[in-house]
Amino acid sequence: MSGVRFIRTLSENGQVSNIPGSEFIEECDLVIKATGQSKQKSFLNLIGGINTNGNGTIQVSEQYQTTNKKYFASGDAVSGGQEVVNAVADGKKAAKGIMHFLCP
């Protein structure tokens, strides 16, 4: 089985601790690790059809759909880097765009 291994956590009094026995694997066939601060333009070139702005951010519609209609983007890839809360909000908007795309 291929996937990502997770463990549930508990936050109490500002401390995060693992919940014993709560590990699980989320099956997947592709994981894109998002770390670091540099743009991965070479990765976007592998996909093709995704236009970027002059600052290297990905062009998206109001529904966060890229110019390659099979792909959606949000967060720092679109904004160029803001607070985490902005990336989360963008992710929610992109999820709604994906739902609209899949279930018109």
TrEMBL record:
<dbReference type="GO" id="GO:0016491">
    <property type="term" value="F:oxidoreductase activity"/>
</dbReference>
<feature type="domain" description="FAD/NAD(P)-binding">
    <location>
        <begin position="13"/>
        <end position="91"/>
    </location>
</feature>
<dbReference type="InterPro" id="IPR036188">
    <property type="entry name" value="FAD/NAD-bd_sf"/>
</dbReference>
<protein>
    <submittedName>
        <fullName>FAD-dependent oxidoreductase</fullName>
    </submittedName>
</protein>
<dbReference type="Pfam" id="PF07992">
    <property type="entry name" value="Pyr_redox_2"/>
</dbReference>
<dbReference type="InterPro" id="IPR023753">
    <property type="entry name" value="FAD/NAD-binding_dom"/>
</dbReference>
